[in-house]
Model the fold of this input.
Amino acid sequence: MHKAIYAIVAAGLCFPLILAAQSGSNVTLPQDKGPAKIDVSSYPADQQKAYKVFADKCSKCHTIARPINTTMPRPDWERYVKRMMHKPNSGISDSQGKTIFEFLAYDQENRKDKNASAFFKSLSDDEIEKLKAQQH
Ligand code: HEC
Done:
């Protein structure tokens, strides 16, 4: 009887923490403030389709501006897409993750690498934690 009450209270206390940890919107990164779309009109047809998957799936927890304005080498994008896929409730399947990675790699080479100073390097976990602390 008492155990059940403790369990309910504990669940109630943890719930907001779980939500906060999943939302990803509890911190604003510098890249979130950049443009929130890419002109893909000159991209190959399959990449234009992939852009839609990317824009749909990668805007669930933070603004789509975040990945649009972050520059990183191709292998880091592979790692990053996996990291995002493995977050709770990401809603991204393996095949969608692959499509998104291929789009990000193409976009990196054809848009970001040509104008690298216009974009933000990805932040380390420590840097993100520091921003969080400043914003709360
Ligand atoms: C389930 C929620 C969620 C989804 C879906 C999601 N992200 Fe994220 N993303 C986060 C969180 C939370 C962070 C903050 C850093 C961390 O906890 O890893 C983040 C951070 C980032 C960053 C910041 C990099 C840096 O360190 O400066 C990039 C880029 C990014 N996400 C790209 C993507 C891409 C691309 C997708 C789609 C494949 C995506 N995200 C989908 C939650 C999500």
Observations:
- The chain has a mean pLDDT of 89.
- The chain has one domain: 2-135.
- The two ends are 38 Å apart (CA to CA).
